[in-house]
Structure formats: C-alpha cells, structure tokens
C-alpha cells in the first residue's frame, strides 16, 4: 500500500471541467514519484495514500489545489536571446524557460524585434481539473531515495537524474 517513502508508478489523465483532455502520460512511459516528499500536489498525494497497484483514483481539484489561481500580473518581458534554441516563436507557444527560480513553463503572448512577452502562469492555472490516475506499481524507497527526496526510477529502468 502507498504510504510515506513509497516509490509509486502511475499513469494519469488530466481533464478540464468540460472533460477536455489537457495532459496524460504517454503509453509505456508512466510517471514515477516518491510519496510523502512533496513531489505531487498535496490533495492528489492524499488521494493516493493507502492505494495499491491496480487501484484507480479519480479526484477533482480546484485551481488553488492544482495549478494555482490565474495571476493577471504575471506577464514579463524577456530578451529574445533567451529563446534562441526554440527558433521562430509564435504567440501561444508554450515552452520551458530557465529563471532565477528554476525552470518555468511559460506561454508566449507577444513577439517583438528584440523582446518577448511571456505569461508565467502555468498553462492550466485557473482551471478546475480532474485527475484520473491508475496505480501501476509501488515499492519501498531505498535509503538513498529518501535522503534525496525523489525516486530514482522503478527497478532501475528509468534511470536517475538530478
């Protein structure tokens, strides 16, 4: 059963309040995480607590429990040089951007000659979302995983990356 310090492998689907698919794990590429170490949204992790391989979990989360409320003042202007590796940019592109606070997923809102305006809200901010999760496997974490605060893969096949 899933509890603190369990390494858990799941597949999931995320739907918005109209039932539109927002995200899902790819076939053959489940998500692996260390339970009880703030690697998931707290409400989702709580819903998975005590579950076991083969269990299905469905939970609807409000914006404050999921990807956050929409922050209207989150548009920032960034030098175009930070986007060179992405080639031609278009309004609506969603890309990872390295920031002082680590990597953030941003949405391009305006492309100028030398500057780009980006919205730093998560693309699903402000949305009520439903998670449909299938627990595939779970095992006890190693001492190293607990010390590091994250899973190092499942049975070694997923590798270990910091």
UniProtKB/TrEMBL annotation:
Its EC number is 5.2.1.8. It comes from the Bacteria. Residues 5-69 form the PPIase FKBP-type domain. Residues 142-162 are annotated as: Disordered. It is found in: Cytoplasm. Keywords: Chaperone, Cytoplasm, Isomerase, Rotamase. Its main location: cytoplasm. GO terms for molecular function: isomerase activity. It catalyses: [protein]-peptidylproline (omega=180) = [protein]-peptidylproline (omega=0). Signal peptide: none annotated. Gene3D superfamilies: 2.40.10.330, 3.10.50.40. Also involved in hydrogenase metallocenter assembly, probably by participating in the nickel insertion step. This function in hydrogenase biosynthesis requires chaperone activity and the presence of the metal-binding domain, but not PPIase activity. Belongs to the FKBP-type PPIase family. This is Peptidyl-prolyl cis-trans isomerase. It comes from Allohahella marinimesophila. The lineage of its organism: Bacteria, Pseudomonadati, Pseudomonadota, Gammaproteobacteria, Oceanospirillales.
